[in-house]
Amino acid sequence: MIAISTGAAAIAGGVLVLLIATAVWALYTGLAARRAALVDATGAARDATLVAHAPAQAVIVRSDGRVEAPARVADWLGLPAEPRYLADLGGADFGLSTADLAELSTHVNAAQRAARPLRMTVAARGSARKLVITGERAPEATLAPGGVVLWFVDATESQDEIIRLAEDRARIAEAFEALAGLIEAAPMPMWYRDRELQMTMVNSAYVTAVEASDARDALDRGLELVEASGLGGPLANAAIARDTQEPQVAAVPATIGGARRMLRIHDVPLPTGGVAGFAVDVEDLEQARGGIKRFGEAQRAMLDRLSAGVAQFGADRGLVFSNQPFRSIFALREEWLRDRPEFDRVLDRMREAGRLPEVRDFPGWRNERREWFRAATEVAAEEHWHLRGGTHLRVVAQPLPDGGLLVIFEDQTEQVQLASARDTLLRVRTATFDNLFEALGVFAADGRLQIWNQKFRLLWGFDEALLNGHPRVDTLARAAAPRLENPSRSSMIGDLVRSATIDRLQRGGRFAFADGRHFEFAAVPLPDGNALFTMLDITASRRVERALTDRNEALEAADRVKTSFVANMSYELRTPLTSIKGFAEMLHGGFAGALSESGRSYTEAILQSVDRLSGLVDDVLDLTIEEAAGKRTGVDLELLAGAAAEAIAPAAAAKRIELAVEVLEGAGRVFGDADRLRQAVQHLLRHAIGATPEEGRVLLHIDGGPDKARVIVSDNGPGMTEAAVRRAFDRFAPGIARGGERALGLGLPLAKRFVEAHGGTIDLLSEPGQGTLVTVELPRE
């Protein structure tokens, strides 16, 4: 084994460390150089891509004439191969033309010698492109010292746009010239204002209207067509049109040629910011329109005074006018007609109101009437409509020159009825008179009998010969006297007829005949000056009336006897009840000796029955008293509620019923009999407790307003049927007694009587299973 010294080992270790460090440094440097190379390669690829797809392509022309051109330039020029020299940029059938190539060569030489920049536009013969070439001498630091850098830009689209714009400009200029000539030749004044509303152009009609020598004179002097007014003058509408970008129209007067004319001024905003204006002379139109309007108003005023209905429809078949008779005949509301309803809608509304003839095919009938609009204006359609209710209309439809329609509805119902009635009047009158239950006689103004029926003759027993002679009323009165119970009253017939014919007053009365019959008579004045004398047999009604009167008197007497009997019996029952109660109390108190437990329970049962019977007697007496309310004073309803609840509390406790009293601040006071009101509330509470099962709940609630107070008693009992509710306030109907047993139901009737005696109302609401609620309303005064 060879021994190595310590120093040699140290030197070897140092050398080894140095070698490792050198290797690490070399590795790091190599990796960094690799990353830098990758970044440069990526950047170079990106730059190459951008240059290849850029809109401008660079061509380098070296000092010896050689050319470095990208493939896109060759494509743009239509070259079959990439050029190597400047002369290769042109050819016989492709590339630059000979003139363009020569001009380019000259510019390149100038750029090489004098560093003069160049710019020119060329067209490639091998393609449809137009190129813009710009260039300058290449910097010395580039790869082409003494050369020129040319930039080729594809300007095909921009050049086409320039050509199109040039053509548009020429066309617009031509249209402007034509429009200017048209404006100048226009017979109406026309002008133009700039953004500041200054007049900058006028036509010849404007110059003539303002009486200027020429357009320049009108502009220099600032002559306006319209005079200034309080609304801002001629610039007001122009300013509005400029600011709102909306055309403005105004009718203003102006003086032209020494005459006042009405002009319609139009101000139209233009995209330039200015305002164009023109004036239309509407004086003649306004005059004609005013005349037509006045004629139309006069015509409609005349039509509105006609008795016939008139409706006018426009060319669009909308209603433009209708008079009052038309609206009345067809029951159409004026508000609905103001909306200009269409012809078909008007017919539909007439049909709904029942004012059209009954037809089987209404749509077809309506379509036939629509043809009235298409008829010749010299031909008027005429129809007769028979409506329900006997209305007869004569309809005339006249087409108008403007396409509208005028329809006239003449109500001929009266004429038709008169014509029909004229032939049948006598027969109808005779048949009517003879079949009436009344006796009728018509007397003329001189008192002579003119017309009569058989009932009149038979009632008085007059001879035919007497009546055919048309006797005077006094003669008839004397002949009728024997028939009357009091013959002297026959003179009333003459007095009544004279009162109706001379004084024109209607009077009547009653006659009693000697045979016991009764008649009601009357003398009625007629429109023609005559008088109608009528007589109606009321014997049967008199008998019924008398029978009803007798029955009513008998019922009232029976009711008085019943009331008196009930009152007397009630008073008579008080004495034995008092004695029974007194002796029972003595027995119960041990005055006759000590009682056994059974004896004490018997005496207690006697006392309870006596109390029940005493209460029933008191209730009966209350029903028989005529005055249900005595002395009236101010009654505090809160105190009244407390007293009533305290009186009923034992009955509620016996059934373990919760008795709640609720008095609100609005309860206040009422004016009445405190005892009667307390009794009324007690009756309501007793009825509620009696109808409520054990462990139920009864509520007494009192509130009110400024005019009246309200008392409410409600319970959660089983409720009442509808039949029971209807009979709840009937006297002696089955009800609930003080002990909860069935008895005569006097509580609710008494409560109702006491409440109504104070001017109040009581209402009961109940349903089975829902409990019962009774509401009492009492006036404050």
Q: Please, could you describe this protein's structure?
A:
This protein has 781 residues and is α+β, with helices and mostly antiparallel strands. The protein folds into six domains: 51-154, PAS domain (Beta-Lactamase, 2-Layer Sandwich); 186-281, PAS domain (Beta-Lactamase), CATH 3.30.450.20; 287-411, PAS domain (Beta-Lactamase, 2-Layer Sandwich), CATH 3.30.450; 425-537, PAS domain (Beta-Lactamase); 550-626, Helix Hairpins (Orthogonal Bundle), CATH 1.10.287; 627-779, Heat Shock Protein 90 (2-Layer Sandwich). It contains 23 helices and 29 strands. The strands form seven sheets. It has a five-stranded antiparallel beta sheet, sandwiched between helices. Strands 7-6-10-9-8 form a five-stranded antiparallel beta sheet. Strands 12-11-15-14-13 form a five-stranded antiparallel beta sheet. The chain starts with 5 loop residues before the first helix and ends with a strand. Residues 736-744 have low confidence and may be disordered.
Major sheet attributes: 5 strands, antiparallel
Number of domains: 6
Ranges where pLDDT stays below 50 over 5 or more residues in a row are 736-744
What structural class do you assign from the helix and strand content? alpha+beta
* 3D shape: flat
Provide mean pLDDT, rounded.
80
Q: Which homologous superfamily in CATH is the superfamily of the largest domain? A: Histidine kinase-like ATPase, C-terminal domain
- Could you estimate the helical fraction of the residues in percent? 40-55%
Portion of residues in beta strands equals 15-25%
In the CATH hierarchy, the third-tier topology of the largest domain is known as Heat Shock Protein 90
Number of DSSP-assigned strands: 29
Overall CATH class of the largest domain: Alpha Beta
- The end-to-end distance, rounded to whole angstroms, is 146 Å
| Name of the CATH architecture of the largest domain | 2-Layer Sandwich
Number of helices: 23
The main sheet orders its strands as 2-1-5-4-3
